[in-house]
Design goal:
Elements (H helix, E strand, L loop, with lengths): L15 E5 L6 H8 L21 H7 E4 L11 H12 L3 H15 L14 H12 L6 E5 L7 H16 L3 E5 L3 H4 L4 E6 L2 E6 L1 H6 L5 E5 L5 H9 L4 E7 L2 E6 L12 E3 L4 H8 L24 E10 L2 E11 L4 E5 L6 H9 L6 E6 L2 E2 L4 H5 L2 E4 L11 H11 L4 H14 L15 H13 L5 E5 L7 H16 L3 E5 L3 H4 L4 E6 L2 E6 L1 H7 L10 H17 L1
Parallel strand pairs: 1-4, 1-5, 2-3, 3-4, 13-18, 13-19, 16-17, 17-18
Antiparallel strand pairs: 5-6, 7-9, 7-10, 8-9, 11-12, 11-14, 14-15, 19-20
């Protein structure tokens, strides 16, 4: 396998350089080569004026690397992690005291010095990881997907911190799967299959598709069918649901005949150019589109009534109520630590509420637990399958968990292998699969018993844009066949695909409605056409102001 193939690039100080590309493109390999953690088979690298192969010790004094997976010790406190990294980097005495004071203030972690790292929210973990990487002020900072699983508020804070570092002259390389982040970089390197496809300002990538991006309004309840119809046209390169409309990228500067009704051109995004540069999205229809329609469900497919959860004196969720209609995608959004995951786990039957009830298909999750859970498919936030079992063994095991046996089990496994293209991976252990394939397998295991209700907890966290589109092709097809979906996500462009969303903050639902209605509620002179992320942050900040008043 050639992980990187003749890459030529220069990265300058005092700016943030983005590193983007599909899973397996070579992003992490490139970062490890720069930091001297891997050695190149050919070519040469110079980082901070040093050869990583022969002068790695000196390079590690000048450069800092924050790995993709949380590289800290979860059983140690915030202060103990900082102390450990200071010991490893030889930072002692007054230098250590100054560094701790500076970093705790910089990351706003000073009030949490005695908290175990494993008990921090996702955003706080990433801030601690960044602080440990900055124990010694580096000349070069390498960040491998630092914002995966981090909510929009914490991501914005993380960006402010890193932009301040770049302003001090530090060279920052930021690998990311959030393409709105790539737009903020001074330069971007796009890798695919080990090759460098683009190196330059993000605006250059957006210019590729200028005049070829459109927003097509969809009639009520027709967004997903309109998207499927558009993607079937060869003139369309890419398409996604965006609120009450469908966003399309075309091959020419015009919409195909039949799609131009109630459409308008829109400014291109970096993501539009990237998908176009990669050859377009996979437009293969989902096999779920041909599946039998689910039997008509109860009036409410999912219902939360006054859900409250207390952990001792702390109330994680308070009086949460909402209803999800059959065949609807309902998004549960919120900052890390806001009570979103607690609410989600109560709805899945994984956590018993202190008060209130949760129903699925008319069944109480706690009085008719077995019958209710038989109607549910669940995909956990973290890869929850068995890493030491092969792909095939995981499929067989979960088929048994869901009560599938004999011919029915064999047919279900065969169907999932074909749908998610798992054939080449069947004998590989799940733990060594690339993230995108792990997520495919997790979704396959969650839906093989044809559930009426599907719970997806951040199903595409850390997954590249092409894989995310494949996921949503399957999800949209299932919903069109009558499946109800409840999803949590930090990709707010992904939340645009939901029919309705609820924003959970400080344990309460502070806003609920369609994505377009949520955005409209936050429109003002500063934001005449707010994005969902801008609306998300505005609602959180408004709630904080009201609470402080």
């Amino acid at each position: 396998t050639i992980a990187l193939d003749r890459i030529d690039a220069e990265i300058s100080g005092g700016r943030i350089t983005g590193l983007v590309g599909p899973d397996g493109a070579g992003k992490t390999t490139l970062l490890r080569l720069i930091d001297g953690l891997l050695l190149a088979d050919a070519g040469s690298i110079e980082a901070c004026g040093l050869d990583p192969a022969s002068r790695s010790r000196e390079l590690h004094e000048a450069a800092a690397y924050m790995p993709q997976r949380f590289g800290l010790y979860e059983e140690l406190t915030v202060a103990e992690n900082l102390t450990l990294y200071a010991d490893l980097r030889g930072v002692v005495g007054d230098e250590r005291r100054d560094a701790f004071g500076r970093l705790l203030d910089f990351t706003a972690l000073a009030p949490f010095q005695d908290r175990l790292a494993g008990k921090l929210s996702g955003g706080m973990k990433q801030k601690l990881g960044l602080a440990c990487a900055l124990i010694k002020q580096p000349l070069l900072l390498l960040l491998d997907e630092p914002s995966v699983g981090v909510d929009p508020v914490s991501r914005r804070e993380l960006w402010r911190m890193v932009e301040a570092l770049a302003a001090d002259g530090i060279a920052v390389v930021w690998s990311t799967s959030y393409l709105d982040e790539a737009e903020r970089c001074a330069e971007v390197l796009l890798l695919n299959e080990g090759k460098l496809l683009h190196h330059g300002p993000p605006a250059d990538m957006m210019e590729i598709v200028r005049g070829r991006t459109f927003l097509v309004a969809a009639p009520e309840g027709e967004r997903r069918r309109l998207l499927a119809k558009a993607l079937a046209r060869p003139e369309v390169v890419d398409g996604v649901v965006q609120g009450g409309s469908v966003r399309l990228v075309t091959r020419a500067a015009a919409l195909p005949a039949g799609l131009a009704v109630d459409a308008r051109p829109v400014a291109p995004r970096f993501e539009d150019g990237l998908i176009d540069r990669l050859g377009g999205a996979d437009k293969t229809p989902s096999p779920f589109a041909a599946a039998d329609r689910q039997p008509a469900a109860a009036a409410a497919a999912v219902e939360a009534v006054g859900l409250t959860k207390r952990f001792g004196s702390f109330t994680a969720a308070h009086d949460i109520s909402f209803t999800i209609r059959p065949g609807e995608i309902f998004g549960l959004l919120g900052p890390n630590g806001a009570g979103k995951s607690t609410t989600f786990k109560m709805m899945c039957g994984l956590l018993r509420p202190s008060e209130g009830t949760a129903r699925v298909a008319g069944l109480d999750l706690y009085r008719a637990a077995s019958a209710a859970r038989a109607r549910i498919g669940y995909m956990a936030q973290k890869f929850s399958l068995y890493g030491d079992l092969s792909v095939r063994q995981n499929l067989v095991f979960f088929a048994g968990v869901y009560g599938l046996g004999g011919q029915r089990r064999a047919q279900a496994i065969e169907r999932m292998v074909g749908t998610f293209r798992l054939e080449p991976l069947l004998e590989r252990n799940a733990g060594v699969l690339p993230l995108g394939f792990k997520q495919r397998l997790a979704l396959a295991c969650a839906v093989m018993h044809e559930p009426a209700v599907l719970f997806l907890d951040e199903p595409t966290s850390g997954v590249d844009p092409l894989t995310r589109r494949q996921f949503w092709t399957h999800i949209n097809a299932m919903v069109e066949r009558g499946v109800t979906v409840m999803v949590t996500t930090h990709f707010l462009d992904e939340a645009e695909s939901c029919d309705r969303i609820a924003l959970v903050y400080r344990g309460r639902v502070i806003a609920e409605g369609s994505p377009d209605a949520i955005k409209l509620s936050c429109r003002d002179t500063a934001h005449p056409d707010p994005t969902l992320e801008e609306a998300f942050i505005a609602l959180v900040e408004a709630h904080d102001r009201e609470a402080a008043a």
